[in-house]
Write a structure and sequence with these properties.
It is a single chain. The two termini are about 35 Å apart. The radius of gyration is 24 Å and the shape is elongated. The protein has nine helices and twelve strands. It is α+β, with helices and mostly antiparallel strands and about 290 residues long. Helix content is about 35%, strand content about 20%.
């Protein structure tokens, strides 16, 4: 199993053999730790767990490329290993998140905290790593802004089975960009992502940026004028999927008699628009 971590701390490599032995529940003699630029003939390639480290510049000190042989029983997942190494070395360990963003990382602190982090890498000949932001304060990264990192929420890999089924049934000519079919499946996907994310308890980030929530309500608005422009059978499929999602949204939300949600998302514009029923319901509590 492969692992790729970034860590803080000047003395981390000296702590790694014992820490990795503990994390993988093996003997320290079965761990090989070496400089990635060192002499390969001095490596123990038969080690159960091997780690090549590379010195970094900036807020992060080391890149760790680790490999656990198949003989290692019950190897930890990458996030669990990051948390274990952070606790054992007293440093912060980062791993790439699943989202398609170069700045999306998870950071594990020595006290067991796992939080989002935004990392920027310069284009210098010797790249400089800068941890620009974290969602919770972390020791060892005092210069990072503590703030919610909004861009990763829009990139979360949220399954959309209803949209996938609808899209698969579209004839090729009905799914090309700019066609009513394309409008239908892209907007349906946005609506399904909001409903599914809400149903999961905002799993993956724990919150939803107001701008994203508004955009997905507006995607639901835009679906209202699509069915009349679709062939009858396709329109029926769209309405069936919408009915399911609308019912789920209604069950997951409460009536917003005071119009707080619309007021927060639209500002003065809320009083100037004839809003559909989904603007008059809100999750409890609001996810931002």
């Amino acid at each position: 199993m492969m692992y790729n971590l970034l860590v803080t701390g000047a003395a981390t490599p000296s702590k790694l053999p014992a820490a990795l032995a503990t994390a993988f529940h093996i003997s320290v003699h079965d761990v090989d730790v070496a400089d990635a630029l060192g002499d390969p003939d001095r490596r123990n390639w038969d080690a159960a767990v091997s780690c090549a480290y590379t010195a970094l510049h900036g807020d992060l000190s080391w890149a760790l490329d680790l490999y656990a042989q198949e003989s290692v029983p019950n190897p930890p997942g990458e996030s669990d290993l990051a948390k274990e190494l952070a606790a054992l070395t007293g440093e912060v360990a980062l791993l790439s998140a699943a989202e398609a963003l170069p700045s999306a990382y998870w950071a594990a602190s020595p006290n067991g905290l796992l939080t989002r982090a935004r990392v920027f890498v310069s284009d210098d000949e010797e790249p400089v790593y800068r941890v620009d932001a974290v969602e919770m304060p972390l020791p060892g990264l005092p210069g990072a802004h503590v703030t919610r990192i909004a861009e990763v929420v829009g990139e979360l890999n949220i399954p959309t089975p209803l949209t996938d089924t609808f899209r698969a049934r579209l004839p090729a000519q009905e799914s090309a960009a700019g066609t009513p079919g394309w409008e239908a499946w892209t907007r349906l996907g946005a609506w399904e992502k909001l409903v599914a994310y809400m149903a999961s308890g905002w799993s993956g980030s724990g919150w939803c940026p107001p701008d994203l929530y508004r955009a997905r309500l507006e995607a639901r608005d835009a679906l209202e004028d699509v069915p009349p422009r679709l062939p009858e059978a396709i329109a029926a499929d769209l309405m069936s999927a919408l009915q399911h999602l609308d019912n789920s949204y209604a069950e997951l939300t409460a009536e917003d008699k005071g119009g707080e949600l619309a007021g927060l998302l639209l500002g003065p514009e809320a009083r100037q628009r004839q809003l559909a029923w989904w603007w008059h319901r809100r999750p409890e509590p609001l996810p931002w």
